[in-house]
User: Which sequence fits this backbone?
């Protein structure tokens, strides 16, 4: 596999193959916490942070398991490590930055069941990225997730003031919005692909 | 948790049917949306994904129910996750053994069954409290409901997006398929449309029967 | 086991030992199950993989019925059984045992993500005789025309891939041209409406061919000698 430039990896993860709008990862938090911009921002940051940490951890595990020739345990190890990373991050943030903990607080445990994190670990493995590439990929994925969440929250805040037919309130409306956003993001396809 | 041994659910037809409609994991509880949207661009993928998820759901629920008196509360989530991940790994290898082409089509979403909140939700909310046979029936119903949801999306998307069903062409050759339906936005649109339909049905029902429960639905 | 249920405190703090025992037990059990399934399915998966590769190789090289895998290493071509690291290529033979062609992989970034290809090379005419998309997430109906459009696929019936005089690179790099402007046998006539995907395919082919074909051509004898099934170890 020829090495991809870091900028392409970043763009790819953040917009072209946006984790939420193109790959459908992390839909639950996307629909769940995108009602207000402030919570969306905090959730995005928390996810970005956990993504970076677990990406590095997943890289380490994959290396270790490859050395030991135990690749069939990969999935179990990944999920266990992500769950404990989230716990560790929670404890760490609580200890060293109570202010940050108050704003991220309830979102951290939610991240464990965010399939974007596990997806990130699995994709970086299947794409055979090295450590630096993995971290850039995680950064791009986190930025893309935050971006999608913020866009959605902005739309929903506006929509809260609009008169919507009763029948289309709630999740159905959110999904239609997400579809439109996803349609818009398709326009990014081809970015970084046309260079020689 | 053996804390409430007296309130275990008796086995009725409702144990199964609930998962199909009233508590449908996708349409009503809005859980496990990622695979629902991602792999439903064809009917075949939807069926395979539904069956794989049902298998993991039933097996892990059974094991959790079996071990329910034995798992301390503090480590229950970790235990459930390990149990689920085990069965997902088994399914992963199983599908590779059955067909590598199918495996390529479903991609990473087989392994992502681990993070499907339907399964962890069942383990935590039902299997950890109930007896073995009710758990089996209930999780089977949930799995069927999940598969049903996948199918209703997959069929619509395949018919509109490729003009085929299970790979068999439905329309004359000059039919121009609505390609966007098998692309990511189509997933959102079709699921949104299904939810709209269900909302509309519920509202209509509520309007026809002016009882307090109907009013409550209308208000929410 | 029944006795342990009794000792479990209700609502109070669970001692460390049962927690460790439970986690350990579950981990042991899951490990056992996974290893069991892994061992059972491993030969089936390997067989599936082999059939799939074989099908792809026979598809890109017309008339091929058997194949042998080689690794392109620093020191030259080696049969895959020797365990060297490098790109795997497939030498395919016809029913008479003669070398029909060599299949080699290539990859490039397309419209959505990296596309992986398998190309067929015929050493007799020094040309590309077939292509197959192995993995792609290109837009259905547009980008995926590179594997379905019959007019585009005609590019790969006999695409010129001659080596230069010293045999170190292609005499003419394989380049994509705008739809309908193909004039030379080494040009690829792009699909209109799928230009980026066509370009990606040309780039993948050119990169892989520039790198691999000189080595393949230099060691055709190795491929040939390993080719006859009777001579194979």
Assistant:
């Amino acid at each position: 596999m020829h090495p991809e430039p870091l900028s392409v990896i970043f763009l790819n993860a953040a917009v072209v193959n946006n984790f939420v709008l193109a790959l459908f990862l992390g839909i639950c938090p996307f629909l769940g916490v995108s009602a207000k911009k402030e919570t969306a921002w905090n959730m995005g940051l928390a996810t970005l942070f956990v993504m970076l940490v677990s990406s590095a951890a997943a890289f380490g595990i994959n290396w270790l398991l490859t050395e030991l020739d135990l690749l069939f345990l990969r999935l179990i190890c990944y999920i266990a490590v992500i769950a404990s990373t989230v716990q560790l991050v929670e404890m760490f943030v609580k200890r060293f930055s109570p202010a940050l903990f108050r704003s991220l607080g309830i979102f951290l445990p939610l991240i464990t069941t965010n399939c974007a994190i596990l997806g990130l670990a699995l994709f970086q493995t299947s794409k055979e990225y090295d450590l630096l590439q993995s971290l850039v990929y995680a950064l791009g994925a986190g930025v893309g997730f935050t971006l999608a969440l913020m866009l959605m929250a902005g739309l929903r805040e506006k929509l809260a003031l609009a008169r919507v037919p009763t029948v289309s309130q709630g999740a159905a409306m959110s999904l239609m919005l997400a579809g439109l956003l996803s349609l818009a993001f398709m326009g990014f396809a081809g970015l970084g692909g046309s260079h020689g | 948790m053996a804390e409430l041994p007296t309130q275990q659910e008796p086995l009725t037809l409702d144990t199964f049917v609930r998962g199909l409609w009233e508590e449908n994991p996708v349409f009503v509880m809005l859980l496990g949306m990622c695979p629902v949207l991602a792999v439903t661009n064809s009917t075949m993928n939807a069926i395979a994904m539904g069956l794989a998820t049902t298998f993991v759901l039933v097996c892990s629920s059974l094991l959790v129910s079996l071990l329910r008196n034995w798992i301390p509360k503090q480590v229950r989530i970790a235990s459930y996750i390990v149990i689920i991940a085990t069965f997902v790994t088994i399914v992963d290898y199983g599908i590779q053994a059955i067909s590598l082409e199918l495996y390529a089509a479903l991609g990473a979403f087989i392994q992502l069954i681990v993070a499907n909140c339907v399964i962890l939700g069942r383990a935590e909310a039902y299997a950890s409290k109930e007896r073995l046979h009710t758990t089996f029936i209930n999780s089977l119903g949930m799995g069927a409901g999940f598969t049903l949801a996948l199918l209703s999306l997959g069929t619509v998307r395949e018919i509109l997006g490729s003009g085929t069903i299970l790979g068999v062409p439905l329309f004359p050759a000059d039919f121009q398929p609505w390609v966007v339906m098998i692309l990511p936005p189509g997933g959102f649109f079709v699921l949104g449309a299904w939810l709209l339909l269900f909302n509309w049905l519920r509202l209509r029902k509520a309007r026809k029967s002016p009882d307090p429960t109907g009013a409550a639905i209308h208000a929410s | 086991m029944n006795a342990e249920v009794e000792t479990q405190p209700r609502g109070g703090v669970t001692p460390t030992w049962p927690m460790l025992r439970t986690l350990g037990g579950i981990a042991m059990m899951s490990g056992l199950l996974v290893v069991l399934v892994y061992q059972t399915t491993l030969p089936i998966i390997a067989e599936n993989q082999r059939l799939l590769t074989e099908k792809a190789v026979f598809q890109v090289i017309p008339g091929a019925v058997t194949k042998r895998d080689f690794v392109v290493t620093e020191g030259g071509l080696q049969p895959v059984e020797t365990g060297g690291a490098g790109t795997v290529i497939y030498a395919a033979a016809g029913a008479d045992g003669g070398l029909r062609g060599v299949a080699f992989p290539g990859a490039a970034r397309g419209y959505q993500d990296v596309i992986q290809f398998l190309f067929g090379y015929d050493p007799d005419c020094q040309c590309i005789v077939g292509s197959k998309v192995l993995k792609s997430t290109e837009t259905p109906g547009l980008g995926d025309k590179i594997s379905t459009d019959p007019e585009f696929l005609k590019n790969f019936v006999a695409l010129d891939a001659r080596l230069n005089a010293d045999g170190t690179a292609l005499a003419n790099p394989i380049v994509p041209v705008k739809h309908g402007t193909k004039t030379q046998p080494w040009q690829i006539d792009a699909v209109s409406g799928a230009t980026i995907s066509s370009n990606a395919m040309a780039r993948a082919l050119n990169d892989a061919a520039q790198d691999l074909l000189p080595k393949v051509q230099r060691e055709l004898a190795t491929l040939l000698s390993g080719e006859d099934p009777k001579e194979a170890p």
Observations:
- The longest helix of chain B spans residues 132-162.
- Chain B has one domain: 13-208.
- Strands of chain B lie at 164-165, 168-169.
